[in-house]
Recover the amino acids of this structure.
């Protein structure tokens, strides 16, 4: 069989809608051989200030200013003319070309959404040209950074109740998670999450609480305190066949930036604002009662000293996860490793803006015993690239939202497919 021509022939972007009804960029890369790959870029609702910058039109007459026509134009003109003729198999060279073309640390000239859409679509096109499943192609790419065999499917952490900016606004904490034990097959872990999700719905109905869903498919009930939400998850687990603390655990994504005030951390569970030290004491009390497995963004993104204290106090029992703190950024991750400010990192491709940079960050984390959680965003599409990426890099966990809503389920179902292929 003759060698397949993997040079880039054409790059075409379009404006599509994400799961929140906001525009985002979808790009198709066509190779000279006719093989092609398409990828779309998600967007966050709760944005850390250290993330790469996505380009929006800010034209209030169109999609409330959220349009991405300029980002689309950047792909179809500036980027397309530069990468045309480059070899799609040379991912790091293509990504470097994209970064040099933008020339800024936060990618605000071309936009991280423009850059990432081309970066991911190139990898999909190359995988198709090699006639490989995407996760196998990405794993071969990751091997160049760190030898990694695909021996398991990452453990899902399910966002069952949505609060903060993802919910109806009456809960301070952004996400309340149910996490199956890591020794479960993925198919069994998914069943646990789906069954407990339905159990939570029954409890909310019984309490005459609202059980509509938030951005990530979790319920957005009208509860009074954050502890009420944790208690409902605990009750749902205790009413299930699964053993709390053995088969299934609880986790929280606090997104503490959203309730940090000048006076301190302001939550409904306490009458006044809490200092960083007092808030850590509060979290230790919650852990003592509910035996948390994961605490994500428990403090604001610049409260470095108290991140260090939190990790020292709770890190032996709880995964202390940096999201806004780290923003999938290699320099911030290196600082966190040096200062022992966390024990896990949430990894989001669109926070950093290119596939190669994402793989570099995962490599740094794994080389320093920092757990990795590959994550979606609140504004998602049906693209399941992130599922293949999580398997390829052997992430410890995946965070794809509730086991509900098509854009979330697309990722979970893709992991089921991969599990069947890898471990029949």
């Amino acid at each position: 069989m003759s060698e397949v021509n993997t040079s880039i022939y054409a790059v075409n972007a379009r404006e599509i809608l994400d799961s929140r009804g906001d525009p985002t960029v979808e790009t198709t890369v066509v190779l000279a051989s006719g093989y092609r790959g398409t990828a779309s870029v998600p967007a966050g609702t709760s944005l850390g200030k250290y993330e790469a910058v996505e380009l929006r039109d800010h034209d209030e007459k169109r999609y409330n200013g959220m349009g991405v026509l300029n980002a689309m134009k950047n792909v179809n003109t500036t980027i397309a003319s530069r990468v045309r003729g480059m070899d799609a198999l040379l991912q790091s060279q293509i990504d470097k070309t994209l970064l040099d073309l933008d020339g800024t640390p936060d990618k605000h000239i071309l936009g991280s959404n423009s850059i990432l859409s081309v970066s991911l679509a190139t990898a999909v096109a190359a995988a198709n040209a090699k006639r490989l499943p995407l996760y196998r192609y990405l794993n071969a790419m990751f091997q160049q950074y760190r030898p990694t065999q695909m021996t398991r499917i990452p453990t899902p952490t399910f966002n069952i109740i949505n609060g903060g900016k993802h919910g109806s606004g009456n809960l301070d904490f952004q996400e309340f998670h149910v996490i199956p034990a890591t020794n479960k097959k993925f198919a069994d872990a998914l069943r646990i999450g789906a069954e407990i999700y339905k159990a939570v719905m029954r409890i909310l109905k019984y309490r005459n609480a609202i059980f509509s869903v938030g951005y990530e498919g979790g319920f957005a009930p009208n509860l009074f305190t954050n502890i009420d939400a944790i208690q409902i998850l605990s009750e749902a687990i205790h009413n299930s066949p699964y053993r709390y603390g053995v088969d299934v655990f609880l986790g929280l994504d606090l997104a503490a930036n959203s309730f940090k005030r000048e006076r301190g951390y302001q939550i409904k569970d306490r009458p006044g604002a809490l200092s960083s030290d007092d808030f850590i004491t509060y979290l230790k009390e919650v852990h003592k009662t509910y035996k948390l497995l994961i605490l994500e963004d428990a403090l604001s993104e610049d409260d470095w000293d108290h991140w260090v204290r939190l990790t020292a106090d709770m890190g032996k029992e709880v995964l202390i996860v940096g999201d806004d703190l780290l923003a999938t950024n290699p320099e911030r991750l290196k600082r966190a490793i040096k200062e022992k400010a966390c024990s896990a990192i949430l990894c989001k491709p669109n926070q950093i803006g290119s596939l190669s940079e994402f793989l570099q960050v995962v490599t740094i984390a794994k080389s320093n015993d920092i757990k990795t959680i590959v994550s979606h965003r609140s504004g998602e599409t049906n693209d399941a690239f992130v599922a293949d990426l999580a398997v390829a890099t052997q992430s410890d966990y995946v965070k794809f939202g509730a086991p509900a809503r098509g854009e979330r389920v697309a990722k979970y179902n893709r992991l089921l497919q991969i599990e069947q292929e890898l471990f029949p």
